[in-house]
Design a protein that fits this description.
globular, mainly alpha, single chain, 9 helices
Length: 167
C-alpha cells in the first residue's frame, strides 16, 4: 500500500511579509487583532472597511503591488494617479492612501486572491487578465478592474471558471 504524498504549500516570502504588515497595520483597529493572515484579512469585511476608512499605508500597498500580477503603470491607471505620484508617495514617510484609493487597492487584492485560487499561479492569472474574454464582452479582464462594477464582473467570471461554468 503506497502512501500518497501530502501537498504542503509553503508560503512565499512576500506572503509572510504581507501577514506581518497587515497584522501591524490592524493593531490600531477597533477589532483587537493579535495576528492575522493577509488571506484572512481579505475575507473579513469589517477589517476591510476599517482599512479603507483608515487608508492603506504605502508600506502595505508596496507589498500588495509586489504580490499582484500588475505593473506599476497598471496600478497608476487603476488608482487614477501618475507613476510620478506613486514614486513620491513611496519616498514620503508614513504615507497612507485616501479611502478611494485604498478601496481600489483592496479590490485588486481580492481579484488576485480569487485568481490565484482559480488558476493556481501568478503567470496563468496574468495571462488570463490580459487575454480578451468572450464572457466579458471580448474585453480583457484587466480593462474592467478600474471600477467596482467591472471588478464585480471579473470576480463573477472567476467564480464561474472555478465552478466549471464556461461560456
Amino acid at each position: 500500500m503506497s502512501e500518497q504524498p501530502v501537498m504542503v504549500t509553503a508560503k512565499s516570502t512576500i506572503e509572510h511579509k504581507l501577514d506581518k504588515e497587515i497584522t501591524s497595520f490592524l493593531r490600531q483597529s477597533p477589532v483587537k487583532v493579535k495576528s492575522i493572515t493577509y488571506e484572512d484579512f481579505l475575507s473579513d469585511k469589517m477589517l476591510i472597511i476599517f482599512a479603507i476608512r483608515t487608508g492603506i499605508p504605502y508600506s502595505l500597498f508596496d507589498l500588495i503591488q509586489d504580490y499582484t500580477p500588475l505593473t506599476e503603470n497598471d496600478w497608476a491607471d487603476f488608482l487614477d494617479i501618475s507613476t510620478k505620484s506613486l514614486h513620491r508617495y513611496k519616498s514620503a514617510e508614513n504615507y497612507s492612501f485616501k479611502s478611494i484609493h485604498s478601496e481600489k487597492i483592496i479590490e485588486v487584492a481580492e481579484v488576485t486572491k480569487m485568481g490565484l485560487e482559480v488558476f493556481g499561479n501568478m503567470e496563468k492569472l496574468r495571462l488570463w487578465l490580459n487575454t480578451p474574454n468572450y464572457a466579458l464582452g471580448s474585453l480583457k479582464p484587466i480593462e474592467l478592474l478600474k471600477d467596482s462594477y467591472g471588478k464585480d464582473l471579473v470576480m463573477s467570471e472567476l467564480i464561474h471558471i472555478n465552478h466549471g461554468i464556461l461560456v
